[in-house]
């Protein structure tokens, strides 16, 4: 629990540029923070933990990703290499946890592996969408749910998952799956799979089975634990790390979309929400590539011009970034309004589309 809360607060702490600038003061603490600092006076962009001197506030511009800073015309810093990736390292760590979730993954154990726990936790969250602790707990409980489905006893599943107390196990299990350990019966033939995708606007994460896509989000914005819990409750199926035909399909479509070649996603979708949300999403999908609508126009299209706020809220909750194109909804006065994936990204997506009309 602790890790999740800490990570979430961390994200909220960096909502505004002033908060981001403030976070740069503590250089060691800034290593691995999830944004890019560009410097107007030098035209260079850096990781937050760059050893170079902290620029004046008025010279700082902040971006969600290195790709966006690059696109805006800044050059990468030669000291902190903001384009270089930690991805391979994180991927192998993820595999290691997956193979051995009950091992000791405490800060102390990570330090003994030569890793810096605080930095690692931030990077892990930014690249996967999961807090490190949340990921480990999710993997442990998922494996417990699978062995229970296969007929394992609750006490054995509890011990295998690394829980000393039955009540602690029951509580964590109930929180993850919405049901008691003794009752779980996964549809094992139909797992959902989590996969990651690189895009020029940052890494994305998808959840798919062999026939449809259930979720697609930017990793640095998504609350993965909430997403997997939601899907566990709705579908009662194992959720694993892996790729399906649909993961490959969406990856291919993303590549073509970011090249400006694809105007209409065709990956089959499963959208889960209230009737009103589904109506809103259907209207969103009807906004053509490269065009925008206001929240008020969208509310009108849904048949209730007073429902602007409800429409905006459904808009943000669709769980399928880019495909249900909520980035095409802007404020009435023509300004960008909000975006779950970050306003800089929204602006970049809209330029990508208008440039390829
Ligand atoms: Zn630098």
Automatic annotation (TrEMBL):
Keywords: Activator, DNA damage, DNA repair, Membrane, Metal-binding, Methyltransferase, Transferase, Transmembrane, Transmembrane helix, Zinc. Its cofactor is Zn(2+). Gene3D superfamilies: DNA Methylphosphotriester Repair Domain, Homeodomain-like, Methylated DNA-protein cysteine methyltransferase domain, Winged helix-like DNA-binding domain superfamily/Winged helix DNA-binding domain. The keyword DNA damage applies. Its EC number is 2.1.1.63. Belongs to the MGMT family. InterPro entries: Ada-like_dom_sf (IPR035451), Ada_DNA_repair_Zn-bd (IPR004026), Bifunct_regulatory_prot_Ada (IPR016221), HTH_AraC (IPR018060), MethylDNA_cys_MeTrfase_AS (IPR001497), MethylDNA_cys_MeTrfase_DNA-bd (IPR014048), MethylDNA_cys_MeTrfase_DNAb (IPR036217), MGMT_N_sf (IPR036631). This is methylated-DNA--[protein]-cysteine S-methyltransferase. The keyword ATP-binding does not apply. PROSITE patterns: HTH_ARAC_FAMILY_2 (PS01124), MGMT (PS00374). Pfam families: Ada_Zn_binding, DNA_binding_1, HTH_18. SUPFAM superfamilies: Ada DNA repair protein, N-terminal domain (N-Ada 10), Methylated DNA-protein cysteine methyltransferase domain, Methylated DNA-protein cysteine methyltransferase, C-terminal domain. The chain crosses the membrane at residues 29-45. Binds 1 zinc ion per subunit. The lineage of its organism: Bacteria, Pseudomonadati, Pseudomonadota, Alphaproteobacteria, Maricaulales. The active site is at residues 46, 326. Residues 111-187 form the HTH araC/xylS-type domain. It comes from the Bacteria. Zn(2+) binds at residues 46, 50, 77, 80. GO terms for biological process: DNA repair; methylation. One of its GO terms (molecular function) is sequence-specific DNA binding. It catalyses: a 4-O-methyl-thymidine in DNA + L-cysteinyl-[protein] = a thymidine in DNA + S-methyl-L-cysteinyl-[protein]; a 6-O-methyl-2'-deoxyguanosine in DNA + L-cysteinyl-[protein] = S-methyl-L-cysteinyl-[protein] + a 2'-deoxyguanosine in DNA.
